[in-house]
UniProtKB/TrEMBL annotation:
GO molecular function term, any single one: hydrolase activity
Domain of life: Bacteria
InterPro entries registered for this protein in UniProt: Sortase (IPR005754), Sortase_dom-sf (IPR023365)
Name under which the protein is recorded: Sortase
């Protein structure tokens, strides 16, 4: 009798411990990307490490002139506290040096179509349908934010998780069809989820609008960062 009770207690404990361990692993999987982004950012700040994209990454021939010039000269202009960023995509990509964000941009995504934007966010960040292309006058609206489930809110938010660290004057770099476009932040705003004015805004100059959730990993508000074209 005692042996049967012991076995029953052992099974119950085993199931309980297994459930706890599974929960911890699932939580670590979901929080991993944002936790890693936060940790790496704080470590970089503590040790003075900056992430840099060379002024000339590509030419019309596709050659990385900045890196090749360094190699030919024999002098490394990059200090030990600088980390060179290699763009994920020069066909359509975004790089934010300050927060070391580097992702592919998926164009023409309907933010009202859950299945469509989930597919896009699994590959990078999404440019909403109707957005202008980099360098053209109008509103280029890019988001990295899911609203269907809490675990996806956290996971898909990882690319723009540190967007809150951007300030007026910071640089955002876009690549499109092998060309580089530098934008400078001029505004950062917390908006209600029901406020769609930033999405519907139309401009007579090239404006880049980035959207993520605020506080990070929640559905409470939207963090909107806007930048204007500096050069291309």
């Amino acid at each position: 009798m005692a042996s049967a009770q012991y076995k029953k207690l052992f099974i119950l404990r085993f199931v309980a411990y297994l459930s706890i361990l599974t929960g911890i692993l699932v939580l670590a999987f979901e929080l991993g990307p944002v936790a890693s982004a936060e940790f790496n950012y704080r470590m970089d700040r503590a040790f003075g490490v900056s992430h840099t994209l060379p002024p000339q990454v590509i030419t019309s021939s596709g050659q990385n002139t900045a890196e090749s010039d360094q190699a030919q000269s024999g002098f490394g202009s990059v200090s030990k506290n600088e980390s060179i960023i290699t763009p994920v995509s020069t066909d359509y990509g975004i790089v934010i040096e300050k927060i070391n964000a580097n992702a592919k941009v998926i164009p023409d995504v309907d933010p009202g179509n859950e299945r469509e934007y989930q597919t896009a966010l699994a590959q990078g960040v999404a440019a909403t349908i109707g957005s202008t292309i980099p360098g053209e006058s109008g509103n280029l609206y890019i988001f990295s934010h899911s609203v269907d489930a809490p675990w996806n809110v956290i996971r898909f938010n990882a690319v723009f998780y540190l967007l809150r660290e951007l300030e007026v004057g910071d640089r955002i770099i876009l690549f499109y069809q092998g060309k580089r476009f530098d934008y400078i932040v001029f505004d950062k705003t917390i908006a209600s989820p029901s406020d769609v004015s930033f999405l519907s805004n139309r401009y007579d100059k090239p404006v880049l609008t980035l959207q993520t959730c605020d506080p990070p990993g929640t559905l409470l508000n939207r963090l909107i960062v806007r930048a204007k074209l500096q050069s291309s």
